[in-house]
Specification:
191 residues, alpha/beta, 5-stranded parallel beta sheet, binds flavin mononucleotide
Length: 191
């Protein structure tokens, strides 16, 4: 069993990555494979609304000029998908929105190909808007018929500078419990 996490931050190895790695820690303890895919520095553009994915039905976006199809391939290979994003203006980053819109449309065009995979959102913020970013990600999981485990609070951690989120003890505990719950669910659905 494997969980792939996408970090939508423009900042590689920042707070979102730290939070995701705490989720991964619990998954690894349960023997679940993990992979972190960081969008930072990679080219990914928004949906161009060509609707070719509904014509082609080949599990790909017709625009092959960026990393989106690699991301979709990785999502297809795994039982669990984490979408992580820092909060930018009370929402997800542009990179994460591009991934959501295009992977979401391709999945719909192909018989909801992420159906019944496990999905979890992870959000970093300095101060406000994290719940909105969290909701944006969960809208994707729900409308693609994915299954969402919870934690002891909504899945966000607070900090501004790189690594500062480590000081948010409750945030770290939320991620650890989330990791335990993802592992529990994975084993029951796919074990
Ligand atoms: C363009 C931009 C917009 C931001 N908007 C918000 C915001 O609306 N609310 C907030 O709490 N933090 C905001 N932040 C701060 C980041 O969410 C915060 O520093 C987060 O920890 C960054 O995570 P990262 O290290 O994974 O990039 C913003 C940062 C940037 C660069």
């Amino acid at each position: 069993m494997k969980v792939i996490a996408f970090n939508g931050s423009a900042r590689k190895d920042g707070n979102t990555a730290v939070l995701i790695n705490h989720v991964f820690g619990e998954l690894k303890k349960e023997g679940i494979e993990t992979e972190l895919y960081q969008l930072s520095g990679k080219k990914i553009h928004g949906c161009r609304a060509c609707y070719k994915c509904f014509e082609n039905k080949d599990k790909q976006c017709s625009f092959k000029d960026d990393v989106l199809n690699d991301c979709i391939e990785k999502m297809l290979e795994t039982e669990g998908i984490i979408l992580g994003s820092p909060t930018y203006f009370a929402d997800v980053t542009t990179e994460m929105k591009a991934l959501i819109d295009r992977a979401g449309f391709v999945a719909k065009a192909n018989d909801d190909m992420f159906r019944r995979k496990i999905g979890a959102a992870v959000v970093a913020a300095r101060r406000g808007g994290a719940i909105h970013a969290f909701d944006s990600i969960n809208h994707f999981f729900l409308v693609r018929q994915m299954i969402i485990p919870g934690s002891i609070y909504w899945n966000f951690g607070f900090g501004r500078e790189k690594g500062e989120v480590e000081k948010d003890e409750e945030g770290i505990q939320i991620m650890k419990t989330l990791g335990e719950n993802i592992a529990w669910l994975l084993k029951r659905i796919y074990g």
